Amino acid sequence: MEHVGIDLDRLKTFIINLRGDIYPETETDGHNQITKRMIDHLVQAGHLCKGDKVLDVGCGQGYSLETFTQLEAVPVGVTLGQEDLEVCRKKKLKVFAMDQSFLKFADGIFDVLWCRHCLEHSIFPLFTLSEFNRVLRPGGLLYVEVPAPDTSCAHQKNKNHYSVLGKSMWIELIQRSGFSVIDSRGIELKTHAGPDVYYVFIAKKDSASQKQPVHDETDLNPSEKMAVTTGKDIRTQFGLSRKQIGGIDLTRFSRNIINKEHRNFFFDNEFKEHYRLIAYLSTLFNNATIFDIGTNLGYSAIALSYNPSNTIISYDIRECREIGDPETLKNIEFNIGDVLSDKRLENAELIMLDTNHDGSFENEAYRHFHKIGFKGLLFLDDIHLNRPMELFWNTITETKDDITDLGHWSGSGIVDFSS
């Protein structure tokens, strides 16, 4: 069979041009009521549990994310709308600018994928659904809600609705993407234009998609086996265990964070184990220089200041002192600029790297650490957040250990450059 070439540049241009049709998804009482009702249904049916990692595709201005958070799930949202992104971030919600058809998350990291009134915006829903399948764990749950065609609201005429399909076609596409539909229904509602209908599909990742390779040390080649073994040694050497880290008292930071909104975020269930781990790492050193690269709102810098004898040198694109009283943060030096030109990196005992997560700066920094002869510990956040970060983690040749079980769900890793 002759293979016909695909012009990916033309496809990319076409997709980018369509983004001019994006509009903000402002909240309405009607949509919020449906959202609350269907999330309650997932909870009652046992499909959504405390601690579940939830991806909200097309998260709008965050109502679903807030609801998932109240239920003690761990939600992450994606949107292409800049206004929606800014609203969500003002609410301190974890949201990324991302195309639903090209998710930058690693395989199988979410328990639930919630997609309400977004899939109809895909020009190739079968491909988009296959992406949903990829990022869901084995047995993960998919919730899709889309507008029905030919109702009083005529959704098929909406300028950026490209896939307003019939119910049977949606079921077919979901099944072809590796899911089994376990529930489908129609939601009828009255609008100013007349009666309208939304289709709801609840599906689970097929058992055929659940086959995962068994990771056994006996299957590893010698170099991989060495990495696993030395990784265990890192935990032993530095006392990295839940028991040790659990002894960290985060409440001492209450006086450092004078803004109530910031304080609530710092102690949120989703993040407190992460900050407890960071604080514990600071106790491994005394009178040391510690770098925090990519502090964002400043929380990681505060956590690293747990041992007051250390000096924390924090770099980001903006000043972060507004989160607390400067007098209580006197061992933290906030900087804006080129961190790799800072000569003090050479003598740092610990570096935390949490930047743009596309692999570019991470690789540049890694090469620089080699160049200057850095011999300390490197702590990496979000090593399983997306494919570029996983690729970056896999290229590291020093002794390292994946300590995600002790930190944040998106991946935590520690690297010993003295090796």
UniProtKB/TrEMBL annotation:
Gene3D superfamilies: Vaccinia Virus protein VP39. Residues 55-144 form the Methyltransferase type domain. One of its GO terms (molecular function) is S-adenosylmethionine-dependent methyltransferase activity. Pfam families: Methyltransf_11. It comes from the Bacteria. PANTHER family: TRANS-ACONITATE 2-METHYLTRANSFERASE-RELATED. This is Methyltransferase type 11 domain-containing protein. It comes from Desulfosarcina ovata subsp. sediminis. The lineage of its organism: Bacteria, Pseudomonadati, Thermodesulfobacteriota, Desulfobacteria, Desulfobacterales.
